[in-house]
Design goal:
Radius of gyration: 33 Å
Largest sheet: 6 strands, antiparallel
Strand order of the largest sheet: 1-2-3-4-6-5
Structural class: alpha+beta
Length: about 450
């Protein structure tokens, strides 16, 4: 790496060089201290004397212009751009927010291994950044997605750096000796021809993910008809392998059309279902069925036995009447068959006294509340992202008695359940549902 500055050098009477950070496709980057506020910054330097063609300077200047208009929490903030003259050189400086962390390339070099779930999480974060860039007017195509340009902070937060090759900067592939704007092994075929699009960045991301999984450059992996044949080199689920094959298609029209589509498909990949124990002990003596996994929550709240007794009595009464002609049974049958008013009243009594079975199901998209009474079913559905209230609600009935029940609502649709279980069970259920929703939303 060429060292244009030494530690303790002062630039523009404002920035004190701390240490070199690395050399990208264009320029050398240093960690520095801003003497006006004592904040650490990253300074990228380009020496006019060392460039071999003017397009390199154009790339550097336009990178600064593009960065000045980007506003995303995972892209280091643009802070300043200027130049300084020396007796035999002119140097250009781009100042950005300094991101603490290590590049994925450095982590792999230190023998860091990422499991499939971690690789998916990294992919999701990068796709979110790319979705932002590609949605701008005009779209910004990074064109140099690779392990060196993805920084991971200790908390797992991903940052995308080095916009020296963005398409908005220079729309044709720039040759500098034997190299291109971009990095061999991570560039799709169309990028060699200067015909890039949003799906070009997706290919580079896919190649980066392969590097994390294999610790090998994509160029070193076997190929079959210009397509990377990686399945024998990795131990991942078939679903994730299928997703990687799609994003790594040699022909741009065969890949995902956009970062948002790729992200949606990635999120739809089913992870192995695992049972999760409730965080709170189920109340003693509770008959509630509770089953929680990493993907769903199933709850059954059994109803009481009034209607079950009713259904059981009818065949018993018929049998007794048929074989024994019991007078009490005769009276009951006469009343129920000859007096519609009695029959309706009798059914209303059991309807009021009875409580149906409730079946609750929650996944990453919807909350379903189903109830079953006799042979009748009811159903209510609320979108997870629309849920505004989950609580135990207490109201007074017409007789002035306190009635407690569980409530889930999106402000328009209301789902009540658990009126016949204890308050302890109600509070336990609401707490477990709230905990599950926090998990799937995170």
């Amino acid at each position: 790496m060429e060292t244009l500055h030494q530690p303790e050098d002062i630039i523009a009477q404002r920035y004190r060089i701390v240490t070199p950070l690395g050399q990208g496709g264009i320029g050398t980057t240093y960690e520095a201290e801003d003497l006006t506020n004592y904040q650490r910054v990253a300074i990228k330097v380009l020496s006019l004397r060392n460039i071999t063609e003017w397009k390199v300077l154009e790339l550097f200047e336009r990178e600064a212009k593009v960065l000045a208009n980007l506003h995303h929490p995972a892209i280091p903030k643009y802070l300043n751009y200027f130049h300084e003259d020396t007796p035999n050189d002119r140097r250009f400086y781009l100042v950005q927010e300094l991101v603490g962390g290590s590049s994925l390339a450095d982590l792999v070099q230190k023998n860091w291994h990422a499991e499939e779930s971690k690789v998916k999480h990294i992919a999701s974060q990068v796709l979110t950044i790319l979705d932002y860039l590609h949605s701008l007017k005009p779209p910004v195509i990074h064109r140099d997605i690779k392990p060196q340009n993805i920084i991971m902070r200790q908390d797992g937060q991903i940052f995308l750096v080095d916009f020296g090759a963005v398409q908005d900067v220079y729309r044709h592939t720039v040759s500098r000796g034997s190299t291109f704007v971009g990095t061999l092994g991570y560039m799709p075929l169309e990028q060699f021809r200067g015909q890039v699009g949003a799906a070009s960045d997706l290919y580079s991301l896919g190649a980066t993910l392969l590097f994390l999984l294999t610790h090998k450059s994509p160029d070193d992996l076997p190929q079959n008809r210009m397509k990377i044949d990686f399945r024998s080199q990795v131990q991942i689920s078939n679903e994730f392998a299928d997703w990687l094959e799609k994003i790594l298609e040699p022909a741009i029209e065969d890949r995902f059309p956009s970062a948002s589509v790729a992200l949606e498909e990635l999120r739809s990949i089913q992870e192995p279902t695992q049972l999760v124990m409730p965080k709170r002990k189920q109340p003693k003596g509770s008959a509630i069925f509770y089953q929680r996994t990493n993907k769903s929550l199933l709850i059954k709240i059994p109803g009481n036995i009034y209607w079950q007794v009713l259904l059981g009595l009818i065949p018993v009464c018929l049998i007794l009447f048929y074989y024994n002609s019991m007078s009490i049974i005769n009276i009951i049958l006469w009343l129920t068959t000859s007096s519609p008013i009695f029959t309706v009243g009798f059914l209303i009594f059991f309807w009021v006294k009875s409580n149906p079975d409730y079946y609750l199901e929650i996944n990453d998209k919807f909350f379903y509340c189903r109830w079953k009474f006799l042979c009748f079913w009811g159903n209510n559905k609320i979108k997870i992202t629309d849920i505004k209230k989950i609580e135990v609600e207490t109201k007074l009935n017409s007789q002035g008695q306190k009635i407690t029940k569980c409530l889930i609502s999106d402000g328009i649709n209301f789902c009540y359940f658990g009126t016949k279980i204890t308050i302890v069970e109600q509070n336990w259920l609401v707490a477990e549902i709230q905990d599950f929703l926090r998990q799937i939303k995170s």
